[in-house]
Amino acid sequence: MFGTNAELKFEARNLLGQDYEEFQEFGENRIDINSYDVGRTVSLGLSVKF
């Protein structure tokens, strides 16, 4: 890119919207230990070395 070293990065995570669930089950009982909505993330980055 114009005589310099450039790096373009694109990252997308959790595109299907999957939540995180950690739990224990005892028979018909369920105890949530660590459950949360992760959400979607998209990032774009550009680094240039002069």
Radius of gyration: 20 Å
Fraction of helical residues:
under 10%
Secondary-structure class? mainly beta
Uncertain segments: none
Task: Give the assembly state of these chains.
Answer: single chain
Instruction: Write down the overall geometry.
Output: rod-shaped
The total tally of domains equals: 1
Largest sheet: 2 strands, antiparallel
| Distance N to C terminus | 11 Å
Strand content: over 45%
Q: How many DSSP E strands?
A: 4
Polypeptide structure, described:
This protein is mainly β and 50 residues long. It has one domain. 0% of the residues lie in helices and 52% in strands. The protein has no helices and four strands. The strands form two sheets. It has a two-stranded antiparallel sheet. Strand 2 and strand 3 form a beta hairpin. The radius of gyration is 20 Å and the shape is rod-shaped. The N and C termini lie close together (11 Å).
List the helices and strands and how they pair.
Layout: E1 5-13, E2 23-26, E3 29-32, E4 41-49
Antiparallel strand pairs: 1-4, 2-3
Features:
50 residues, mainly beta, two-stranded antiparallel sheet, 4 strands, rod-shaped
Short description:
The chain has 50 residues and is mainly β. It has strands at 5-13, 23-26, 29-32, 41-49.
